[in-house]
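Researcher: Please translate sequence to structure tokens.
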Amino acid sequence: MGMQCAVCGKKPVIGNQKTYRGKAKYLGGVGKKITGISKRTFKPNLQRIKVAVDGETKRSRVCAQCIRSGRVQRPVKVKPFASVQV
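Model: Translation complete:
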């Protein structure tokens, strides 16, 4: 899956990019006018991170909103060459 969040399924959406000219009314002008409209895509902020799924560590593409809200479980980091206590 390209450009899609593995947790919430967020993917690119299409919108418009508007081009303006003129001076805003609150700055003393006559107002802004739209001189052009073109298509653009809004892409999600995807990050490739390690995620703990059923005790296994997998690498997946997750959007920043899911990471910040805690919808993904990050794996516990184990120190290298640590001696095991029995």
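Researcher: Any highlights?
Model: The chain is about 5% helix and 40% strand.
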